Amino acid sequence: MLTHRIIPCLDVKAGRVVKGVNFVNLRDAGDPVEIARQYDEAGADELVFLDITASHEDRSIIFDVVRQVAEQCFMPFTVGGGIRTIDDVTRLVQAGAEKVSINTAAVVTPEIVTQTARRFGRCATVVNIDPKRVPRAEHEARRQETGDRGQGTGGTPGGRPRATPDDLEHHDADYVFEVHTHGGRTPTGLEAVAWAKHVVELGAGEIVLTSMDADGTKDGYDVQMTRAVSAAVDVPVVASGGCGSPAHMRDVIVDAGADAALAASIFHYGEYSIEATKQYLAEQGVPVRAKR
Questions:
Q1: Could you say which of 11, 40, 51, 251 is catalytic?
Q2: I need a surface site. Which of 74, 82, 246, 252 has the fewest CB within 10 A?
Q3: Active site (annotated) includes residue 28
Q4: What is the pLDDT of residues 127-155, one digit of tens each?
């Protein structure tokens, strides 16, 4: 039976775990190495580690912290932030990452997705997509500015995928799910569903989908957006952004088709434990993994 993963996320800035709302107003949540150890002991299925300012600050990820976290964890460990080249990917894998999550670089240099999949396999190749609802007219103007070169094809990095009517059918009438990069600071003109399909063509084996609108609000995941992306791709989709309770995880898994649910605040600040979350989901009929 397919089980659904429960994944804590460590957003790291200046070597500390932080959490904010809508990607801003960050507050300290602790030491990443110690928090990772605690989640491993608590029975988390995986851990995601994101150096959230590395791309914006145009610097490399903090490899020493990644290495220390990897030494404390026996669960699968995904790392992202500040990746620009396949050499960065290689260094992360050598530091202990089982998977590498590519966000900004996937937009700037899409060939890195294909290079990563060829060198380390699709299972190790994750693309993190950060969409935000923007007015449809604003999105269309930006798409024209960024240069729509047509729908890309499998393995071809040059084309910017254009959303089809099918991609847009799950959107609100006046809004589009627009992909953002550089820690949510830069709108790209790319639509989330079309972009998700394109990165899978390039070699991505998993997508972490983070709603910028829901991030940190604790009002629940963006079920509409997650459902649209999950239905469009044949790889696992990890729902991220907005979790305020285990019930929200149930909703995004059952109602939106997410393969896994990622959360930060509810775990970091002790509102819910991994064990209690899994117990609730099991009681709701959602298959989850037993503690190792």
A1: 11
A2: 74
A3: no
A4: 999 999 999 888 888 887 766 443 333 33
